[in-house]
Amino acid sequence: MNRRTDRLVTIPEDELQRFKPFVRYYARGNVIMKEGQTSDMCLFLLRQGAVEVTKQMGTQQSVLDRIEAVDVFGEMAVIAQGPRSAAITVVSERAVVYAFDSASLPVILANPDWQMVILKRLISAIHQRSEQQDRIQLQFERLSDEFDRQQGKIQHLEIERDNLRLLIEQHAIALREVLGMIQTLHNVTTLLENLRPQFFDAVPRLIGAYQRDLKAEPIAPKRSDLEFFYRTSVIGEALYEAASLHAGPGKS
After folding, report:
1. In the predicted model, is pLDDT for residue 162 greater than 50?
2. Residue 41 in contact with residue 119, Cβ under 8 Å?
3. Strand order in the sheet with 87-90
4. CA dist 161 → 2, 169, 172, 189, 224 (Å)
């Protein structure tokens, strides 16, 4: 240690008395500051001892830094006016800390030695925050570009989804139409089956009435044709027998 550091680390009794309202004593393992803490938002002057700066990284507590007297910590919360970004734990046998709230900062700045320590620390913190902001900005730009790409993909997928939905609707309409036609054919077929005997019974009478009105002579069908139509159920038994009476010769 140089002479200046020796003079700062060795705390005169009159200094302890003068800064008695700000003095705090800690033992090894004591936690001075917790990560995420929003109370006791002071800037700390580590007057004697050493502390460790840690931060929760996933499931593990990672060591970021080790600070030895004389130095300051807790300045980030003073700059950002937000929760503590890291935890501070004593790693020396003992530590003496001066805790200054915002209203008491002029007291610590009045000391030329401490003033330089704090200014260097604050400048370093601002520089770190600036670099962090640059990294965040770059990450934001990358994420923004990725978001735009994904947004384009999403829009394309939405168009495909709409086209698929329209196709499904068209298929559904076509299917309903086919089912309707099948139902209609079924109904007509059933109706024809019910009416077929009456229809074929009425055909000879209708033909006879038509011939009388036109005074036309009927053309007798061939017996072979009548038998074919009868076997294939095109004509019924009544029509077959009636037509057979006037059927002409043909291949049987």
Report:
1. yes
2. no
3. 31-33, 87-90, 50-57, 60-68
4. 73, 12, 16, 41, 63
Q: Name which of 89, 91, 99 is nearest 53 in CA terms.
A: 89
Distance of CA 214 to the CA centre of its chain: 82
Q: Are 73 and 34 in contact (CB under 8 A)?
A: no
Distances (CA, A) of 210 to 205, 206, 215, 219, 245: 9, 6, 8, 13, 18
Kindly report the backbone phi and psi dihedral angles of residue 243, in degrees, each rounded to the nearest multiple of 5, phi listed first: -70, -30
Give mean pLDDT, residues 165-186.
69
CA distance 84 to 74: 7
Q: How confident is the model at residue 97 (pLDDT cuts 50, 70, 90)?
A: very high
CATH topology of domain 3-110: Jelly Rolls (2.60.120)
Nearest to 26 by CA among 85, 125, 98: 98
- DSSP letter string, 128-179: HHHHHHHHHHHHHHHHHHHHHHHHHHHHHHHHHHHHHHHHHHHHHHHHHHHH
